[in-house]
Amino acid sequence: MVEGLQASWDMAKPGLSKPVVLVAGIMARDREILKEAKVELSLLFGPTALESPVFPFRFTRYYEEEMGPGLIKQFVAFRRPVRPEDLASIKLATNALELSTATREGGKLRRRVNVDPGYVAPSRLVLATTKDYSHRIYIGNGIYAEVTLIFRKGTWTPLDWTYPDYRTELALDFFLRVREVLVQSL
Fold first, then answer.
1. What is the per-residue pLDDT across 77-115, written as a single tens digit (0 to 9) for each?
2. Phi, psi of 38 (to 5 degrees)
């Protein structure tokens, strides 16, 4: 009986994580601020490997009070692989970047840029957030992780909670290209 238990125990040994592709959604008031943010992010995480076209962010007005109207967004993927367990520290670094580039207007601190980091693994796109919700998992230091897209039957599939900008053809095509680069490197 003990031998059978040992065989089961061997199968349950934890393994090491596999490298993933660091990605970020970057939102800003204009292209110059977006460009500055990409420079700062490349200093933190290395050069980008892929960049989506810049697109107008018209999915919600949630950010307008703080950042102003006419926001634009771009998705980027970084060349240097990361470990999934680094996502919380990456989110803390991007939060620090947002804070360091913020301005004080009318007595309020206003972000000039919003950076949403995450990673692409072969089966999923995961985003980091500071906001807790039923489908998010706490990963440490005040940060939660959310599976935003899953890869199924050769394509990315949005979930009930997937943000509208991550459901677009532009986003799905971009993350498909990112996944192809990742799979080729494995």
1. 999 999 999 999 999 999 999 999 999 988 888 999 999
2. -65, -35
Q: Which residue has the tokens 């909670």?
A: 161
Q: Is the pLDDT of residue 186 over 70?
A: no
Handedness of CA 34, 83, 63, 96 (dihedral sign): negative
Give the SS3 label for residue 118: strand
H-helix segments, the chain: 2-11, 31-45, 64-67, 87-100, 169-185
| Cα 97 versus chain centre, distance | 15
- Cα dist from 160 to 80, 134, 167, whole Å: 31, 12, 10
Reported pTM: 0.91
Distance (Å, rounded) from C-alpha 161 to C-alpha 147? 9
Contact 24, 44 (CB under 8 A): no
Structure tokens at 39: 């420079």
Q: What contacts 54, CB < 8 A, 6 or more positions away?
A: 31, 34, 72, 73, 74
Length of the chain: 186
CA dihedral over 31, 159, 154, 21, signed as positive or negative: positive
